[in-house]
Design brief:
The protein is α/β, with parallel strands linked by helices. 43% of the residues lie in helices and 14% in strands. It contains 16 helices and 11 strands. The strands form 2 sheets. It has a 7-stranded parallel beta sheet, sandwiched between helices. Strands 9-8-10-11 form a 4-stranded mixed beta sheet. The structure holds NADP nicotinamide-adenine-dinucleotide phosphate.
């Protein structure tokens, strides 16, 4: 008897993770069928994906783009039965993540825009392939609690968390056997750049990652090392580990994707080429293994594997994320929201690279000054979204106060040791 096709919904199909997911799916037509594709506005990419994968429905968040796509579908596919439905209304779009026809939801929208659909998929008990780390940063307690109630399986496709997932023994609570989790970081494009040159960094420089090809927001996050900070918070929720047992180590070759140190002194690492198709294929098929299209790692061709401590003075975003995790409550959500605003402003030329951590720190201070209630973790998704909106408003007001582009960044007062 043939195996039943697994039906997949990809939220963020037109992005970097979306494209890699479709590249893996394309290799396994006997296992997977694309049921749903969701994007924001890049309908040319979506159109090509519709023609190749024939989804039953597509979601387009931007109403103008949705109408353009609908018009094109009517023009070019005269038979209504062959056309996917186009959904644009926000609630209906979110509801696509809980569609009973879907087995696997790939959460690959960038930023807080991905929160509602990730939440819907978790609530509906789906297998959720999680790329949207911002969901766990903003609402980790809520997402994990809901997953255990609904039976949802969250499998991380962030390469570091997927590596840890692969290294952890199935069914053993990490706390009993694990000493610490070690997340590797490439160090980004400015790993060796002196602090004195940071004032000249442009968006193009920041988006030129040495090892990974990614969307613009996560590329800037890698350059500031906020990406690693968000990943520390994501790891804390996914694996139930406190911040002091999550270490970050810079590993410029991006071959060792992360490691787990056990109480008996053993250290397990997951290695491979820096290609997201590997963790995506792992998460799609788990506990099976399927071919991903990624070339084998040739160990003899690897010139060396290097590891060094991160520099939280040049990269204060990493320190800010650790502090937010330790503070708890709305602090991680605030850091993530302020970061998204800061990165958007940097990409638009309204903030300098060095002003990104300044804005995040100022926003966090302003939100924490509001009183003790900010130390309570948000207990509903509506509260999370409302608090996110408020943090963004504080960050936007902060940008308006930062009139001078390129002003000196404050050297962090607390040089927290991250190891
Ligand atoms: N890229 C990587 O290697 C990588 C690795 C680990 C984790 N991640 C995480 O994966 C997520 C996606 O990253 P990415 O690099 O793939 O980003 P990306 O290339 O910028 O793609 C973002 C995707 O989200 C869609 N989108 C944005 N706003 C939306 C909205 N309001 N409604 C619906 N769709 C929306 C975009 O649609 P349009 O194209 O139409 O704008 C696009 O499909 C991020 O959370 C990132 O941190 C990425």
């Amino acid at each position: 008897m043939g195996r039943r096709l697994k039906k997949i919904a990809i939220f963020g199909s037109t992005g970097s993770i979306g494209a890699s997911t479709l590249a893996v799916i394309q290799r396994h037509p006997d296992r997977y069928a694309v049921e749903t594709l969701v994007a924001h506005a890049r309908i040319d990419i979506l159109w090509a994906q519709i023609q190749r994968f024939h989804p039953r429905q597509v979601g387009v968040a931007d109403p103008v783009a949705a109408q353009l796509l609908r018009d094109r579908l009517h023009r070019e596919i005269p038979d209504a039965d062959q056309r996917p439905a186009v959904i644009e209304e926000a609630d209906a779009l979110t509801a696509l993540a809980s569609d009973s026809a879907v087995d696997i939801v790939v959460a690959a929208i960038v930023g807080t825009a991905g929160l509602a659909s990730t939440w819907a998929a978790i609530q509906a008990g789906k297998r959720v392939l999680l790329a949207n780390k911002e969901s766990l940063v903003a609402a980790g307690a809520l997402m994990m609690r809901t997953a255990s109630a609904s039976g949802a399986t969250i499998i991380p496709i962030d390469s570091e968390h997927n590596a840890i997932f692969q290294c952890l023994p199935v069914g053993v609570p990490p706390s009993s056997a694990v000493e610490k989790l070690i997340l590797t970081a490439s160090g980004g494009p400015f790993r060796t750049l002196p602090a004195s040159d940071f004032a000249h960094i442009t968006p193009e420089d920041a988006c030129r990652h040495p090892n990974w090809s990614m969307g613009r927001k996560i590329s800037v996050d890698s350059a500031t090392m906020m990406n690693k900070g968000l990943e520390v918070i994501e790891a804390a929720w996914l694996f139930g580990m406190p911040p002091e047992r999550i270490e970050v180590v810079v590993h410029p070759e991006s071959i060792v994707h992360s490691l787990v140190q056990f109480v008996d002194g053993s250290v397990l690492a997951q290695m491979g080429r820096p290609d997201m198709c590997t963790p995506i294929a792992h998460a799609l098929a788990w506990p099976d293994r399927i071919e991903s299209g990624v070339e084998n790692l040739d160990l003899c061709a690897v010139s060396g594997l290097h590891f060094e401590a991160p520099d939280v003075v040049r990269f204060p975003c990493l320190r800010l994320a650790y502090e937010a995790l330790q503070l708890g409550g709305v602090a991680p959500l605030t850091v993530s929201a302020a970061n998204e605003i800061a990165v958007g402003a940097f990409l638009d030329g309204r903030l300098s690279f060095m002003q990104i951590p300044m804005l995040i720190e100022q926003t966090l201070e302003a939100v924490l000054a509001e009183g003790s209630a900010v130390y309570n973790p948000p207990d509903s998704i509506d509260t999370v979204l409302e608090l996110d909106k408020q943090a963004r408003a504080v960050a936007v007001a902060g940008i308006n106060r930062m009139k001078v582009i390129g002003s000196q960044v404050r050297i962090p007062s607390k040089q927290q040791v991250v190891r």
